[in-house]
Amino acid sequence: MLLGEGGPPAAGVEVAAILDGAHEPAALVTTGEDGKYALLGLEPGKHRVWAWSGSWTTKWPGEEREGLSTDVRGSFRIGGLDPGAYEVRVLRAEEAFFSPGVTRSVDVGEGEARCEVPLGPGGRVAGRVVDRTAGMAAPGASVTLYRRDPSFAPGFGFRFPGVDWVPAGASRGAGGDGGFAFDALSAGSYLLHAYADGRHGWLGPVELAEGGSAEGLEVKPGGAGGLSLEVLDARTGAPVEGASAKLRLLAGPPIFLAANADTSGRAVFADVPPGEHRLEVDSRQHALALETVAVADSSIERRVLLPRASWIVVALEGGAQHPGSRVVSCLLLSEGDPGWPFASLEGARPMAVASCEPGKPEAHLKTRPGRYRVRLEARDPSGKRPTRSLEVELDVPGAGEARVGLEFAE
């Protein structure tokens, strides 16, 4: 039983059991009106029991507390801490939340612990936006700065193109001369993106040393190149109306150009920046087609043949009926090319991810036909609730489906 301040039962509190050495809970429940809870299905071993409520000062182990600002003397105070080891991260006022900032470790005991965090000079990235074809300044263009952070990834254990680049500051408009500047930057690798009059442009990576500067840069939206696609069904040769096409630089920026096929299966990209691009084309009924396309200063044409999609259908059982959506991931353990767009954090193995909506405890994972050994996992969108995994070998037929059940425990 949990008791709140002053002794009344603490209702509606999340309680987790975390196996020693682990970061994610092995079980998570919410206390009832009487403050009681039961943590079931635990593996043998030593567990920590952790309780959290929105009005309490405690957080999940390893989770950041709400930020606070220093006073005019540069001082700060964080109260309500349990004894233990903590990491303090300090950001300059102009830095984005995703910036690494400066960190210091501090051990907190029964009394007050002091922590001094020295901040060196911040770096600067500055330049102007120039229309690539006209060669003139692009006033009012939107400019966004990204920083490469290989440790940044979604909480469900997979990567996708561009995930290594995170915002390093709010987007800002270029001045009358197309000029822009970002200040108070940490050392690292940066990427600039500019958007003007419906056209995109990239520049980077720009390497910045601690306290250094990169000035006089030119970001050039648009280009003289173009790409025209004819998207057809691979079996019938019929146009695939509504097919989705994406074009992204192989260098990996988190921005892409998009187009949809019309009734004749035509999709057109105009004003494409020069370089090698990854072309991704699929539809609701067709598998993903990938191709590398080099765009220069002229328009090129491509015919894309889309095979009919096959499906892995995962039916969640047990606790899946609980309100709220579920996320199902499928990791490839065997050889083969299922045509999945994601990759695992460890080993860069192909992955597919799909959601189950409340009341519809099935996830439909698009794939190519073949025999695959996979690991299936399911969890709720917060990433905190426990998962049940299943390793299974599946025969996926062409333009058909392979069904499998997966137990989801609350």
What does this structure look like?
The protein is an all-beta fold and 410 residues long. It has 4 domains: 1-66 and 80-88, no CATH class; 123-219, Immunoglobulin-like (Sandwich), CATH 2.60.40.10; 225-306, Immunoglobulins (Immunoglobulin-like, Sandwich), CATH 2.60.40.10; 310-408, Sandwich (Immunoglobulin-like), CATH 2.60.40. The protein contains no helices and 29 strands. The strands form 8 sheets. It has a 6-stranded antiparallel beta sheet with strand order 8-24-25-23-27-28, with no helix packed on it. Strands 7, 9, 10, 12 and 13 form a 5-stranded antiparallel beta sheet that branches. Strand 1 (14-19) and strand 2 (27-30) form a beta hairpin. The two termini are 19 Å apart. The model is unreliable at 1-6 and 54-60 (pLDDT under 50).
What are the SSEs and their pairings?
Elements: E1 14-19, E2 27-30, E3 47-52, E4 84-90, E5 102-108, E6 123-129, E7 142-148, E8 158-159, E9 165-167, E10 172-173, E11 179-185, E12 188-196, E13 199-208, E14 213-219, E15 225-233, E16 244-249, E17 257-260, E18 266-272, E19 275-283, E20 286-295, E21 299-306, E22 310-318, E23 326-332, E24 342-344, E25 350-356, E26 362-367, E27 370-379, E28 388-396, E29 401-408
Parallel strand pairs: 6-14, 15-21, 22-29
Antiparallel strand pairs: 1-2, 1-3, 4-5, 6-11, 7-9, 7-10, 7-12, 8-24, 12-13, 15-18, 16-17, 16-19, 19-20, 22-26, 23-25, 23-27, 24-25, 27-28
